Amino acid sequence: MNSHIDEYTDFMKNTKHKSTNTVESYTRDVAKYITYLGELGITEIESTTRTTVLSYMVALKKCGRAASTLSRTLASIRSFYSFLKDSGFIDSDPTNALVAPHVTKKPPHVLSNADVELLLSQPKPTDNKGIRDKAMLEVLYATGIRVSELIGLNIEDVNLAMGYIRCHNNKSERVIPMGSKAVDSLRVYIGAVRERMIRAQDENALFVNCSGGRISRQGFWKIIKQYQESSGINTDITPHSLRHSFAAHLIENGADLQSLKTMMGHADISSTQVYTCFLDEKIRSVYQKAHPRAV
C-alpha cells in the first residue's frame, strides 16, 4: 500500500498542483491511516470497507482528536480513495456518503492595533538582521500574504516605485499594494542590507538568512517568537496572526469583501466571510456609543 501513497503524493503535486503544505498534510494523514490498517492485519487497500474507515475515525475520536482534526483526516482519506478509484486500483469508494464531523469555526486570532505596532517596533535597525526582520514583518502585515508566500518572494516580485509586490503560488498570481511603511522598510533592506547578506550574486530570494540563502519557514517562525518575547505581548503570535490581523483591520476600516478576497488569495468568498464577525463587533460598538438608549 505504500506504493499507492507515493503515487498519490505525485498526483497531488504534479496533477492537482496542490500546495506543499496541503500535500504534506494529506500524505501524513493517509500514512497514519495505512499504519492503522497494518495494525488490523489489512494488507490490501481493496479489502477496506466503509466500516474500516468508520472504525479508524472512532479510534481517533477516542484518542481525543478534535472535530477539526477528524474532519481534515476524513477529507484526506476521501481524497486518497477518490484517487485510487479514478486510477483503477479499487472498484468502489468506501468513503461515499460518510459525513464529516461538524466543526464550529472559531473567530480568527487577531492582534489589536496597539499590539501590532508594538510587535513591529521590536526589530532594531542597528544591524543587518534587524533591518531585514523589520522589512519582513512590515510586508507581512501590510499585505496579509501567507508565510510560505513571504519566504517565496523573489527580488523581481517587488516594485518599490509603484508600491506593490507580486505574489505567486502553484495556482495563481496576484498583485498586492503596500503602505508607505512597508515600502520604506523594504527600500532600506534592499538598498543597504540584502547585497551584504546574499551568498551568491545570482541569488533571487528577496529575504535571505544569515548564511545568504533563502530564509526558511522555520527560520521566520523563530523570528516571530523572538519578537513576541521581547515585546512582552502575552497572547500567542504566529505568522498567521498577522495575516488575520491584516484582514480584520481592513474590514474594520471599511474594506469590501471582494477586494479583501483578492488580496488574501482566497479561492472562495466563504473563506473571506469569516472576517465579517469583526465588522459586526464594530457596528455593535458604534451603536452602543452613539444610541441614546443603548445602555
Task: Please give a structural write-up.
This protein has helices at residues 2-14, 20-39, 50-62, 67-86, 113-120, 128-143, 147-151, 180-197, 217-231, 239-252, 257-264, 269-273, 276-290; strands at residues 158-159, 164-168, 173-177. It is mainly alpha-helical. α1 (2-14) runs antiparallel to α2 (20-39), α2 crosses α4 (67-86) and α10 (239-252) crosses α13 (276-290). The protein is globular. The model has no long low-confidence stretch (mean pLDDT 88).
List keywords for this structure.
295 residues; mainly alpha; three-stranded antiparallel beta sheet; 13 helices; 4% strand; globular
Provide a compact summary of the structure:
With 295 residues, this protein is mainly alpha-helical. 58% of the residues lie in helices and 4% in strands.
Topology:
Layout: H1 2-14, H2 20-39, H3 50-62, H4 67-86, H5 113-120, H6 128-143, H7 147-151, E1 158-159, E2 164-168, E3 173-177, H8 180-197, H9 217-231, H10 239-252, H11 257-264, H12 269-273, H13 276-290
Topology, number of strands:
3
The structural class is: mainly alpha
Contiguous low-pLDDT stretches (5 residues minimum) are none
The oligomerization state is: single chain
Q: Tell me, what's the shape?
A: globular
Gap from first CA to last CA: 64 Å
